[in-house]
Specification:
The protein is built from eight helices and no strands. By secondary structure, the chain is mainly alpha-helical. It is globular and about 55 Å long. The mean pLDDT is about 85.
Length: about 220
C-alpha cells in the first residue's frame, strides 16, 4: 500500500515538475535571445535522466507506470526546449546534442518495443544508465550554476521550474525508499543528487539579487 501511495504522490509531484518545464518553455517564447542564459548541458542532463528512468520503469519485473508515463511527457518537453536552443544558437554543439537526444529517444522506443524481454540484463543496463545519468545531471546543474556566477544574472532561467523539480526530487527519494533500497537505490541516487544541485541553483537566485559581486559581473558583457 505504501508503494502505491508513494508512487501516486511521486507521479503527482512529477506532474508539477512538468508544469515547471512548461513554464520554462513559455518564458523562452516570451523573451528575445531567450536561450542565452540557459545551460544546454543542464537540459541535456535532464533529458538523459528522464530517459534513463523511462527505460528503468519498463525494465522492472512489472512495468512501473508511476515512473514511465510522466517521464515520457518530460522527455518530449525537454526535447522541444533543446530544439529551441538549437534554433537560436545554430552551433555545432547545439545541433549535435539535439539530434543525439532525438536518436536516443527513438532508439529507446525501439528497444522497449522490439528488444528482448530479458529482465535481468535489462535492469542491469538501466542501472548503468542511471549511474551515468546521475553524473551527467550533476555536471549539467554545475554548468548552469557557473553560467549564473559568471554573468551575475539568471536571465530566462526559470526559478519556478527548479522549485517544482526540487519538490519532485524530494518525492522521488521518498518513493525510492518505499521500494526498498535494493530495488529503489537508482531512484534515491539520481533524485538525491538532483535535489542537492537544485537547492544550490535556487539559492543563486538570491545571490544574484543581493550580491555585490553579481552586480559587478552584470555590468560586464560575456560570451558563454
Amino acid at each position: 500500500m505504501n508503494y502505491h501511495l508513494n508512487g501516486i504522490a511521486n507521479a503527482l509531484f512529477f506532474l508539477l515538475s512538468i508544469i515547471g518545464i512548461w513554464l520554462q518553455f513559455i518564458k523562452i517564447l516570451k523573451e528575445e535571445n531567450s536561450t542565452f542564459m540557459l545551460s544546454i548541458d543542464q537540459f541535456t542532463s535532464s533529458f538523459i535522466a528522464y530517459l534513463s528512468f523511462f527505460i528503468y520503469g519498463f525494465c522492472l519485473n512489472i512495468v512501473c507506470h508511476y515512473i514511465v508515463w510522466p517521464r515520457l511527457i518530460a522527455i518530449i518537453l525537454t526535447l522541444i526546449i533543446l530544439f529551441m536552443i538549437m534554433k537560436d544558437r545554430k552551433t555545432i554543439k547545439s545541433v549535435t546534442i539535439f539530434f543525439i537526444c532525438l536518436l536516443l529517444f527513438t532508439a529507446s522506443i525501439v528497444f522497449i518495443i522490439y528488444g528482448p524481454r530479458i529482465v535481468l540484463y535489462n535492469i542491469y543496463f538501466s542501472h548503468y544508465l542511471i549511474i551515468f545519468a546521475t553524473i551527467i545531471i550533476g555536471q549539467g546543474y554545475v554548468h548552469q550554476i557557473m553560467i549564473i556566477r559568471k554573468t551575475g544574472k539568471t536571465g530566462t532561467v526559470s526559478l519556478k521550474m527548479h522549485q517544482l523539480t526540487f519538490l519532485k526530487d524530494l518525492s522521488g527519494v521518498t518513493f525510492g525508499s518505499s521500494m526498498g533500497f535494493m530495488l529503489g537505490w537508482p531512484i534515491i541516487l539520481l533524485n538525491g543528487v538532483g535535489a542537492i544541485t537544485k537547492i544550490i541553483l535556487i539559492w543563486h537566485f538570491r545571490w544574484v539579487k543581493y550580491s555585490l559581486i553579481a552586480k559587478s559581473r552584470r555590468s560586464i558583457t560575456t560570451n558563454i
